[in-house]
Each structure stands twice: as C-alpha cells, then as structure tokens.
Amino acid sequence: MTSETQSQNLTDGFHLVIDALKLNGITTIYGVPGIPITDLGRFAQAQGMRVISFRHEQHAGHAAAIAGYLTQKPGVCLTVSAPGFLNGVTALANATTNCFPMILISGSSEREIVDLQQGDYEEMDQLAVARPHCKAAYRVLHAEDIGVGVARAIRSAVSGRPGGVYLDLPAKLLGQAMDAVAGAKSLIKVVDAAPRQIPASDAVLRALDLLKGAKRPLIILGKGAAYAQADADIRTLIEKTGIPYLPMSMAKGLLPDTHPLCASAARSSVLKEADVVMLIGARLNWLLSHGKGKTWGERGTQTFIQVDIAPTEMDSNVAIGAPIVGDIGSCVSALLAGLGREWPAPPSAWTGAIHQRKEVNLAKMASQLLSNSLPMNFHSALGALKKIVRERPDAILVNEGANTLDFARSIIDMYQPRKRLDVGTWGVMGIGMGYAIGAAIETGKPVLAVEGDSAFGFSGMEIETICRYNLPICVVVFNNNGIYRGTDTNPSGGADVATTVFVKNARYDMMMQAFGGVGVQATSPEELYRAVNTAMDSGKPTLINAVIDEKAGTESGRIGNLNPQSVVKKA
Ligand code: ADP
Ligand code: MG
User: Fold this and answer.
1) Looking at ligand 1, which atom is closest to the CA of residue 326?
2) 398: which residues sit within 8 A by CB, 6+ positions away?
3) Is the peptide bond before 33 cis (omega within 30 degrees of 0)?
4) Quick one: what percent of the chain has pLDDT higher than 70?
5) How far apart are CA 536 and CA 533, in angstroms?
6) Burial environment of residue 224 by CB neighbours within 10 A (0 to 12, 13 to 18, 19 or more)
7) What pLDDT, in 10s, does the model give residues 511-540?
C-alpha cells in the first residue's frame, strides 16, 4: 500500500489485486505495460512482486502458461485493453488447449461506453471474446469483489483439468477506493486450490485386471503425467510392472529416455502391436492418430485404459475399456497399491522384440548423427546438442519449428522430468522465447532454446527481454534460409521469392549483439557444441546462428500428410 492511501486508511483496486495475488503465493507477473494497467505493474513491483515486461503480450502469456505448467500455480499475464488483450488471448487459448494453468488479467475500457458501443478508447467486450478460449472468464466491477474474483480465477485455473482463465478488470475498478481494513478482510486465501481426486477402487481393479491379462502391454505417458509431479510413483509403476512405455513429447525425461523400458525408438511398431494400452495424462488426439487408423493395430483388437482427471475425455476418439478418473498422483498410487507383491512380467516375446527393434533403430540413428557434411544438416547439428543435454541434464530444452522440432524430439534424449518444453497440443509456432523466459525465471536453470529460423521469427524480438533481465538463455537458430527449407522458387517465375523463403544467409546472431548479448555463428557441429557450452557455462544471453544446409528439411516436417492436396494440377 502506498503511504498516501495508507495514511487515509484507504486502499484501492490496484492494491487489492496485488494483495490478493500475493496472499495466494503468486509472486511473478508477466506482461506488457500500458493504459490502464501501467500503475498496476509499477505498484506490484513496488510491493516486491517480480514484474517481467515483454515486448508483445503473446509471449508474456506463453511465459505465464509455462510457469503454470512448471509450478502447478497459475502463471499470471497482465495486458492492456483490446489489442493487447487479444494478443494475450492466443496464449490463453494455447494454455487451455495444453491444460496449463494461467490467468490472463486485462484492463478494459468503461463498461457503460463499451456496452452502448459508443466508441471508447480500445473499446471491446473482452469478457465475451475471452470466454470461448478459456476454462472460465470473470469480470470484477467492485473493489470489494476483487478477492473473490482472484480466488475464483485461481481455483478455475488449477482444479480439475488445468487451463486458462480470464479476469477482466475495468479501468474504473482499479482506481476505486475502499476502507483498507474492510479491503483486507475481503481477500480470500484459497485453501486446497487443486483438491486431490481419488479414483474409485473398482475402476482401478478393472484396469489392473486388463493389464495383468495383457500379452503386449504398453504405457503412454503424456504431459499431464509430467504436470502432476508424481515422478517417483510413475517410475515405480513402470519398473514394478516391467511394462514398456512411450513418452509423449513433453513427458520425455519423466523417466530418462535411455531407460531400458523406454520404447521411443520402436514407437511405430509398439503402437501397432500393443494389445492393452494404458494412457496416463495423454489424450488420444491427432498426436496419437486418434487411437485408430494405420498407426494403430486393427480396430477393436486393442484395449485402452486411460488415467485422466477429466471424465469427459474418456471415449473421445475410441472406446476406453477401463477409465480411471482422478488426479494422476492419486491414480498411480492406487494402481501401485493394487499391484500387490507379485506382478507377472510381460511376456519376454514382447519385451524382447521391442528391445531388438530399438537396437536396430538406435544404431541407424547413431551413424546419421556422426555425419560430417558441411553445411550441417539437422542430424549433425542435433548430434552436438544431444551431447550438450546429456552432459547438462538439468538444463531446460525449449523446442519449436517443423524439421527442427521433429528431429530434435527424436534425437535429443531427456533425463529429467519437465525439462522439455515444446509446441504442445496445437503444434503452435511462437512459444519459443516466451517459454524460455518463463522457464528461466521460474526455475533459475539454464535454458537451451532450439528454434527453426521460421519459428524463431514469431517471438524473436523477445531476445531484448532476455538481455534486459540478463537471463541464462542460449538460443540456437537452425537457419536453413526458410520455412521447411530455403530452396523453393516462385512457380510463376515472377520477381518475388517463394512464399516459404527468407533472406539468404541471415545473421540472427547479430540481433542478439544489438542488445548486448553474445552472438555467434556456427557452421560445424564442433563450433556449435563449443558455442553452446560456452553460453551454458557463462549464463550470458546468447544466440547462435547455426548454418544448416538450405536443401535439408521436408515439407511440414513429419506432419506433411496434414496438408490438403489440390485436385487441380500442382504448380
Ligand atoms: P500429451 O500431449 O503429452 O499427450 P495431453 O495434453 O494430450 O498430453 O494430455 C494431458 C492430459 O492430462 C489431459 O487430458 C488432462 O486432462 C490430463 N491431466 C492434466 N493434469 C492432470 C492431473 N493432475 N491428473 C490427471 N490428469 C491430468
Ligand atoms: Mg527453416
């Protein structure tokens, strides 16, 4: 509270919002200042909160979302009205889609003018716009309701299936004064914001019976399992049952990717051949080919067990034979309790076949990684980064792009939980610098952001933010001169370059130098390895322009099949 308001025993909307957040253990705000929330950021900083100012709201929002994922506390993003709010909505929707808890708090214009559509400064019915893109949306009109508004936002974000929440704060509210004592009393400290949800014991038994009878069981771990922070129990479940598992992208490292039961290197065959599949915090969405089609075995021959906090997730794509609804921590410990002392190991015909498939595929990959061709291709460059992550398992890896994403996901092994942050459920580009900044702020760990040159462009200006806060982030831009690759030509023969091509041989490293960071160009795997090592040792903001063969890369990486085909002859 400022000294003036205190002396009059008054408080106001600004201070109540800050007090309500702090009371609930929220200590960091990610945002972009401006009308009407500039003072909210200033006062929050004055009151000891960490306020991280970005260059664009989308990236502040992504930082808040990943903070939520990493900490199980809602990350808070603060924006101005209409356009700033809309920029934040992309991140809000992305957080909701990925089940990350975040709260987007936006200032808004005068309700009376907005509702009569009289053309206010930055006029927009933000509450209505936000609603379809989040779990819940609230507006507070009276200072005495701020405590309730913040409490509801926190509960909505983290309870059940986590997600994004919108909190609308009209400009007028922030300046509203009220008695300081009554104000303090109006605040709510949320008790047990994400209550445990214990699974029904018959549901657990049903699942265990299925698993026990399986000839070719498989466990799939998703980012919900990583979010749940039940790391030790999940590891015990897999090791005690001896069931091979596949980690989804952001679940990599929940157990080390080098674990003998990890079936990643035999992914396509285990998905086809498994007879009982237990999903833990993973949805059967497009990333798992909806549980059907040629990725999977014949329809009807595979039985699914699904562990999820959202009851309506069950049967969303195929029948779930044994749903277990509850929070993953409680579900996994109930499964463990039900295993008993003797659990039959899966048939060795199954585990042996997986082991053999892995050996063959890993050997194939190992030889590709050693390629010494210049310019570098994805494999040789990622070979250098694979070594870095092996040597620094507690570093956080942020990853986006098309080929840069697909190759890195399969090449770079992860060793610890929640160290791999990527494009997630939407496969969205633009999360890079926001996630890197959020992760660095929340964990204090070094971050390695591996970015396609196109992906980097969506959030590239935030390298100024990285330099401004002197964050230990090393960005590696895989520069192949374009989207997918740099060799496309204009089919009309006209003067414009192809739609997928960028300026040739751009020096992204020099952008970092412009803000006082370290910029390095790397043209060989050795140079790349050395530059990343130096960056990670120094903790200095660094951007490495990794020169990749412009002929390397395929259309849309591994999801080219999602492009519709024209019936008219292709240009
Ligand atoms: P992935 O993309 O890694 O497969 P998804 O985002 O598709 O993961 O799935 C995550 C699932 O985890 C969601 O269905 C969500 O409801 C669930 N989930 C998230 N947190 C928890 C939790 N604490 N307990 C149980 N389920 C959770
Ligand atoms: Mg590219």
Assistant:
1) 25
2) 421, 422, 431, 432, 435, 436, 439, 447, 448, 449, 450, 451
3) no
4) 98
5) 5
6) buried
7) 999 999 999 999 999 999 999 999 999 999
Using the 8-state DSSP alphabet, how is residue 376 labeled? B
Question: Rounded mean pLDDT of 269-295?
Answer: 97
Alpha carbon distances (Å) from 375 to 214, 378, 380, 510: 48, 10, 10, 20
User: Cβ < 6 Å from ligand 1: which residues?
Assistant: 98-99, 161-162, 222-224, 227-228, 248, 250-251, 281-283, 285, 287, 308-310, 313, 327-328, 425
CA 49 – CA 148 distance, rounded (Å): 21
What confidence category does residue 471 fall into, taking pLDDT thresholds of 50, 70 and 90? very high
The DSSP call for residue 341 is S
- CA distances 471 to 42, 257, 308, 450, Å, are 21, 28, 35, 16
Closest residue by Cα to atom 22, ligand 1, is: 327
In the 8-state DSSP scheme, what is residue 560?
A: G
- Is residue 96 within 8 A of residue 88, CB to CB? The reply is no
Domains and CATH numbers, the chain: 10-186 (3.40.50.970), 201-355 (3.40.50.1220), 370-547 (3.40.50.970)
- Residue 6 pLDDT exceeds 90: no
Structure-block tokens of residue 103? 């709260």
CB atoms within 10 A of CB 46: 14
- Is the separation of the CB atoms in 332 and 233 below 8 Å? yes
Atom 3 in ligand 1: which residue has the minimum CA distance? 222
d(C-alpha 25, C-alpha 263), whole Å:
39
The answer, as to whether pTM is greater than 0.85, is: yes
Q: pLDDT for 401-417, tens place per residue?
A: 999 999 999 999 999 99
Residues 17 and 336: their CA atoms lie apart, in Å, by 43
Enter the tokens of residue 569.
Answer: 């002859």
Q: Rounded CA gap, 371 and 362, in Å? A: 15
**Scanning the structure block, which residue is given the tokens 């926190």?**
154
**Amino acid letter, residue 519:** G
Residues forming beta bridges with residue 471, ordered by sequence position: none
Q: What is the pLDDT of residue 184?
A: 98
pLDDT digits (tens, 9 = 90+) for 60-80: 999 999 999 999 999 999 999
Probe ligand 1: pick from 328, 405, 418, 423, max atoms within 8 Å of CB? 328
- Measured CA to CA, the distance from residue 33 to residue 46 in angstroms comes to 15
For the sheet containing 303-308, what is the strand order? 245-247, 217-221, 276-280, 303-308, 322-325
Determine the Cα–Cα distance for residues 266 and 358; give it in Å rounded to an integer.
Answer: 5
Q: Is the pLDDT of residue 556 over 90?
A: no
Question: Do the strands 276-280 and 217-221 form a parallel or antiparallel pair, or are they unpaired?
Answer: parallel
The number of beta carbons lying within 10 Å of the beta carbon of residue 301 is: 10
Distance CA 30, CA 103 (A): 10
Centre of ligand 1 from the C-alpha of residue 312, in Å: 12
